[in-house]
């Protein structure tokens, strides 16, 4: 299990525990935890509605792919640590990370 924090659109933080052995994406865990993540493309990096900002722990996540970067560039607001939650796999690299929701609300 991996534990990380999620900051919602109101600035409230909550600790989330997720299994790191099921190949889940951060987007899937956020949706299962009832966060307002649209993810209209179903995790294919085609819509950028699962936009998050990695406040802490970015170094362990690796670089965004060209496809992910292309989608991030379409956003009206982009941050140096912006990522698409659908492109981040739940692994021990997320341990202790802080993720801020940035996508559109449902």
TrEMBL record:
It holds the Pfam family Fer2. Residues 1-105 form the 2Fe-2S ferredoxin-type domain. PROSITE patterns: 2FE2S_FER_2. Keywords: 2Fe-2S, Iron, Iron-sulfur, Metal-binding. It comes from the Bacteria. The keyword Iron-sulfur applies. Its cofactor is [2Fe-2S] cluster. PANTHER family: FERREDOXIN-2, MITOCHONDRIAL, FERREDOXIN/ADRENODOXIN. Belongs to the adrenodoxin/putidaredoxin family. This is 2Fe-2S iron-sulfur cluster-binding protein. It comes from Echinicola jeungdonensis. The lineage of its organism: Bacteria, Pseudomonadati, Bacteroidota, Cytophagia, Cytophagales.
């Amino acid at each position: 299990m991996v534990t990380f924090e999620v900051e919602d659109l109101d600035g409230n933080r909550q600790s989330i525990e997720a299994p790191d052995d099921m190949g889940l994406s951060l987007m899937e865990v956020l949706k299962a935890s009832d966060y307002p993540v649209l993810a209209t493309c179903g995790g294919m990096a085609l819509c950028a509605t699962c936009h998050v900002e990695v406040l802490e722990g970015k170094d362990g996540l690796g670089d965004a792919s060209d496809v992910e970067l292309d989608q991030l560039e379409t956003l009206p607001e982009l941050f140096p640590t912006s990522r698409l939650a659908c492109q981040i796999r739940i692994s021990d690299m997320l341990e202790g990370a802080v993720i801020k929701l940035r996508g559109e609300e449902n």
